[in-house]
Amino acid sequence: MTGILYGIGVGPGDPELITVKAVKRIMGCELIGIPAKEPASCTAYKIAKGAVAGLEKKPVVAVPVPMTSDTEKLLKAYDAGSGRLIKELREGKDIAFLNLGDPTVYGSYMEFHERVRKAGCKAEIISGVPSFCAAAAELSVPLGSRREQIHILPGLYCTEELGQYSGTRILMKSGGQVREIKEKLLKLEEGGRAKVYAVINCGMENRAVYQEIGELPEEAGYFTTIIVKEVCKE
Question: Which residues contact 109 (CB under 8 A, 6 or more apart)?
Fold first, then answer.
């Protein structure tokens, strides 16, 4: 009998935000899967370690995913990583694959999930707290009220499309594009069309919360979540 691959959302950074179900699945699996070369360089692993006693005693299957927009390199990494996971699954081992936030929201895990299932192995998803929900809580702002729309956008690719949406716009993983994004957001605020907030490293010890987008440093890292709230004029 083949094992089961569990794509487990560990939340945005705070170990206390990992669900009880996620902890139980991690504890019940023989192997831990990570999208990195080693546990020490994997943020998701560090988060899980703070919630799961004895995690470091479990063997790790490392399937590195390069931080690149090069499709060819990414596909090769996903194919190679899936091959390693499938090998372990066919030996009857269950794997808890750790994913930041929720696996279904821009999660690298989903690439492995699809390939593993196509290969005839079982794979399931354990939901986690998305970073934008945790960021909204840190900022004490609602993401959606009444009929307000919510749009989730990849910050690295959406700078030209930002003005096309109404309601709340959430920019995920905006690091590396902060200068360009910030200029557009400041113009939106100056025009009285929006109020913009940001959180860096939400839920982590080094998190930073910005109620004013003008204060967001241009060197903000990869885990930067920006929330753009439409200003409703009476």
Answer: 7, 35, 97, 99, 103, 125
* pLDDT above 60 (res 157): no
- pLDDT band at residue 156 under the 50/70/90 scheme: low
Backbone angles phi, psi at 123, to 5 degrees: -150, 135
Residue 59 in tokens? 């063997």
Cα angle for residues 131, 77, 80 (degrees, 5° grid): 125
φ, ψ for residue 5 (rounded to 5)? Answer: -95, 125
Q: What's the number of CA atoms in the CB half-sphere (13 Å) around residue 213?
A: 25
> How far is C-alpha 92 from the geometric centre of its chain's CA atoms?
29
Question: At 138, is the pLDDT very low, low, confident or very high (cuts 50, 70, 90)?
Answer: very high
